[in-house]
UniProtKB/TrEMBL annotation:
Coiled coil: none annotated. PROSITE patterns: CHEW. The lineage of its organism: Bacteria, Pseudomonadati, Pseudomonadota, Gammaproteobacteria, Cellvibrionales. Pfam families: CheW (PF01584). SMART domains: CheW. It comes from Pseudoteredinibacter isoporae. GO terms for biological process: chemotaxis; signal transduction. This is Chemosensory pili system protein ChpC. Residues 11-155 form the CheW-like domain.
Length: 156
């Protein structure tokens, strides 16, 4: 058993979540669940705030639903019955917030990230909610700044 562990490559199972203008790269352990968007579970925001769509009812909780694109200064992606919602585990920046959610613009897929398969790009400072821009197996993706998303969601 010990020998098997040593021979396994150093990989991080991840999800590539498409949003308008970006592909978010999230370790699978940070994603609580991907769920289909249902209008009946959406509670619109009471006040207009850039990037804040409202709350999404998930497992008897009202999770802040964010537009990752709009938070980063891009046009908000379309929201319809074809979207998915990524429920992301909070990192603990705010003890009252267990999850944040972002609206996906396509079907997420699994990405197995290894040190050999990932390369950092130098333009990561361009967007406030992007921790790092990377290329994984030839595809550009961004690693979202989840703590910053949490801080923003807690303020709304």
């Amino acid at each position: 058993m010990e020998q098997l562990t040593q021979e396994r490559p150093n990989e991080v199972p991840s999800l590539a979540v498409p949003v308008s203008g970006f592909t978010l790269l999230l370790p699978t352990i940070s994603v609580a669940e991907m769920v289909p968007y249902r209008k009946s579970r959406f509670i619109p925001a009471e006040h207009e705030a850039s990037g804040f769509l409202g709350r999404y009812e998930w497992r008897d909780q009202k999770v802040p639903l964010l537009s990752f694109e709009e938070l980063n200064g891009l046009p908000r992606g379309e929201v319809s019955g074809y979207n998915q919602v990524a429920i992301i585990n909070a990192t603990g920046v705010n003890s009252e917030l267990a999850y944040v959610a972002v609206i996906a613009q396509g079907i997420p897929h699994v990405a197995r990230v290894t040190p050999e398969a990932i390369q950092e790009l130098s333009d990561a400072d361009e967007y406030p909610y992007v921790k790092m821009t990377v290329v994984v197996d030839g595809q550009e993706a961004v690693i979202p700044d989840v703590p910053a998303l949490e801080v923003t969601a807690a303020e709304l």
